[in-house]
């Protein structure tokens, strides 16, 4: 069992997946910071200086706080502002990934166009002479 586990770990796919997950997590934090620290304050300023993270409905009569963190301490809340922030975060991340995939696809197309064409087939008489040579060489 240990040997099978060692073979599984030593495959390239597992390592590639691990690297992808680590880079994806770091990239997700960058996008999260972009949304929370740059985009959402601008959107909040345009909409009257309000922070989306503090948009919520109290689901309990005991909740009377104005900030989400304090409201969660007092009781159940429906934090739709946090959802808006996360949804916007997802849309930005999806758009950035779309741009990256589009750039890679364009690069692949450009490289395929630059590939030299396959050499033309030799004339029939040369092909026939090559075939005769190969038959004589086998004898």
**What general outline do the C-alpha atoms trace?**
elongated
Terminus-to-terminus distance: 54 Å
Unreliable spans: none
User: Into which percentage range does the β-strand content fall?
Assistant: under 5%
Radius of gyration of CA atoms, rounded to a whole number? 30 Å
* Category from helices, strands and their pairing: mainly alpha
The strand order across the widest sheet is: 1-2
Mean pLDDT: 83
Order of helices and strands: HHEHEHH
Q: Based on DSSP secondary structure assignment, what is the total number of beta strands?
A: 2
- Helical content class: over 70%
Q: What is the makeup of the main sheet?
A: 2 strands, antiparallel
Individual helix count: 5
Throw out a few tags for this protein:
two-stranded antiparallel sheet, 73% helix, mainly alpha, 139 residues, 3% strand
Task: Describe the structure in brief.
The protein is an all-alpha fold and 139 residues long.
Provide structural commentary.
The chain has helices at residues 2-10, 12-46, 68-74, 80-114, 124-138, and strands spanning 57-58, 77-78. It is an all-alpha fold and 139 residues long. Helix 2 crosses helix 4. It starts with a helix and ends with a helix.
Describe how the helices and strands are arranged.
Blueprint: H1 2-10, H2 12-46, E1 57-58, H3 68-74, E2 77-78, H4 80-114, H5 124-138
Antiparallel strand pairs: 1-2
Helix pairs in contact: 2-4
């Amino acid at each position: 069992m240990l040997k099978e586990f060692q073979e599984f770990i030593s495959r390239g796919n597992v390592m590639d997946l691990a690297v992808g997950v680590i880079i994806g997590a770091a990239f997700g934090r960058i996008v999260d910071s972009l949304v929370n620290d740059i985009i959402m304050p601008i959107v909040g300023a345009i909409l009257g200086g309000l922070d989306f993270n503090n948009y919520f409905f109290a689901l309990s009569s005991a909740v009377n706080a104005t900030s989400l963190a304090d409201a969660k301490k007092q009781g159940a809340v429906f934090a739709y502002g946090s959802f808006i922030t996360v949804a916007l975060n997802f849309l930005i991340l999806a758009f950035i990934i779309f741009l990256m995939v589009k750039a890679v696809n364009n690069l692949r197309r450009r490289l395929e166009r630059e590939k030299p064409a396959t050499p033309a087939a030799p004339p029939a008489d040369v092909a026939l002479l090559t075939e005769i040579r190969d038959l004589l060489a086998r004898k």
